[in-house]
Amino acid sequence: MTTTLFTTPRDLLRYAITRFNTAKLFFGHGSAEALDEAAYLILHTLKLPLDKLDPFLDARLLPEEVQQVLQVIERRASERVPAAYITNEAWLGTYAFYVDERVLVPRSFIHELIAQQFSPWVEDPFAVDNILELCTGSGCLAIMMADAFPSSVVDAIDISADAIAVAERNIADYKLEGRVNPILSDLYQNVPAKKYDMIITNPPYVNSASMSRLPPEYLREPQIALAGGEDGMDLVRKIVAGAAERLTPQGILMVEIGNEAEYAEAAFGHLGLTWLTTSAGDDMVFLLTAEQLRAQ
């Protein structure tokens, strides 16, 4: 395609939206629609502020700038690569993280609860000493937890050496070495022998029927980080079973299970799950206290 057809970001924005909608792309990695994703990719590629599209819409672009943007648009549309893998950047709230194909694109409703410091379940954020995050991936939640609970040390666990490498990069970017400790481990296997005030996790929880229907963008992600077995609860069962002995007497376990609330209730409803409110509703994240866990 000749670049002379495009002279401004406005031209490229219109083209990208049409191209993305024609390709029937799936938007589940931070953007809600073609417009949002097109604007993000254009601004990022041109190294412009991500929150200031309007002032630049009619700026005249160099031919090489147009070519760079067109290449990004085409890769997103034809290869169905999530935008975050193209830009090596993903956002959770106000936090930006490095990502690539070794980890899931960060998306978690737990991050909304971190901003509230888990109130009212945590009375004094400064009294939280030790936090365990299982299935850390890029390390995004562990980093946010370290910020929200300034006296804490966060042990960030993942079974994937590739994911741990990405987490290490993000931890270094946020200068949290020593406060966020990435640990290669199959769940609790290599976890330090200490008690935690909190265990949080956004584990693989997609049930097998849903796995077979995932859009191409999700198939670009590490499947080990998505698949949760027949009912999605394979790893969650292990997490719940091992939590009690690793929590302090007043400790809490918080688990994100996405759209699998029905299966979570079937597996753990007898424990008396507390469902926490997020922007997606009251059935995405559940909480159990140490006392509840010890009664199982």
Can you describe this structure in just a few lines?
The protein is an alpha/beta fold and 296 residues long. 36% of the residues lie in helices and 18% in strands.
Mean pLDDT score: 95
User: Shape from CA axes?
Assistant: elongated
In terms of per-residue confidence, which ranges show pLDDT below 50 for 5 or more consecutive residues? none
Biggest beta-sheet profile: 7 strands, mixed
- Rg over alpha carbons: 21 Å
What is the strand arrangement across the widest sheet? 5-4-3-6-7-9-8
- CATH class descriptor name of the largest domain: Alpha Beta
Instruction: State the end-to-end distance.
Output: 63 Å
- Could you tell me the CATH topology label of the largest domain: Rossmann fold
Can you describe this structure?
This protein is an alpha/beta fold. The protein folds into 2 domains: 85 residues, Helicase, Ruva Protein, domain 3; 191 residues, Vaccinia Virus protein VP39 (Rossmann fold). It contains 12 helices and 9 strands. Helix 7 links the parallel strand 4 and strand 5. The longest helix is centred in the N-terminal third of the chain and has 17 residues.
Any descriptors?
single chain; 296 residues; alpha/beta; Helicase, Ruva Protein, domain 3; Rossmann fold; 2 domains; 7-stranded mixed β-sheet; two-stranded antiparallel ribbon; 12 helices; 36% helix; elongated
